[in-house]
Design a protein that fits this description.
The chain is α/β, with parallel strands linked by helices. The chain is built from 7 helices and 11 strands. The strands form 3 sheets. It has a 7-stranded mixed sheet with strand order 3-2-1-4-5-11-10, sandwiched between helices. Strands 6-7 form a two-stranded antiparallel ribbon. Strands 8-9 form a two-stranded antiparallel ribbon.
């Protein structure tokens, strides 16, 4: 995965993200306001990529810092927030040290996402919050044809946990780097198994949601 994202880092920053820079079609800002909310102090972004969400976090009062496995992506992110290269399944952060952790559109890049959630629970202090904004398991994946946004076609495959490069478009990410699919119940069970308490949910994108958001807390 590191190599795949290294290979596309310049395209991702200068073409893929640039096309969305003046809009927020996935409603990520509204989801962060609702699920993370205003705060202060450090907020870790897991899988920060090129740092596209740093300004959103600062607008909420947080001091973002990011971790990513791809040095190519971090080359762009380093101008936007403090960063370090790290594997999300082994965070270089002390136990019970953070009040807030978040991630945006990354869980499909992480076949070991249950281990990532366990690491999140480890580094959060009691009462700390984790916000997950991920592609919607029910409406996004190799089984979903989104070529006609007003009428998403869901083919067989949703119930299967799998990795695939199948995509309805050659203009996105998944045909380039692949994706791991976890059905919604399995994803939510992974949060519970990590010891995180589910608090709130949200969806973004229209007319059929593209993003599924979760706010969880460490007791």
């Amino acid at each position: 995965m590191r190599a795949h994202y290294d290979d596309i880092a310049d395209w991702y920053e200068h073409e893929f993200l640039a096309a969305q820079r003046d809009s927020d079609p996935l409603e990520l800002t509204a989801l962060l306001v609702d699920l993370l909310g205003a705060g202060g102090g450090p907020c870790l972004e897991i899988g920060c990529g090129t740092g596209a969400h740093a300004d959103r976090l600062r607008a909420l009062g947080w001091d973002p810092f990011g971790l990513d496995i791809s040095c190519g992506m971090l080359r762009h992110a380093s101008a936007k927030l403090p960063v370090a290269q790290a594997d999300a399944e082994c965070l270089p952060i002390a136990d019970s040290s953070l009040a807030a952790v978040m991630t945006v559109l990354t869980h499909t890049d992480m076949p070991g996402y249950p281990a990532v959630l366990r690491e999140v629970a480890r580094v959060l202090r009691p009462g700390g919050v984790f916000v997950h904004l991920g592609v919607h398991p029910c409406f996004c994946g190799g089984f979903a044809d989104r070529s006609a946004p007003a009428a998403i076609v869901i083919k067989p495959g949703y119930r299967d946990t799998h990795w695939t490069t199948a995509s309805w478009t050659a203009q996105g990410l998944r045909d380039k780097v692949g994706a791991t699919h976890r059905p919604l119940p399995q994803l939510l069970h992974d949060f519970l198994a990590a010891g995180l308490v589910l608090e709130r949910f949200g969806e973004g994108g229209a007319p059929t949601p593209t993003v599924f958001g979760v706010r969880a807390r460490k007791e």
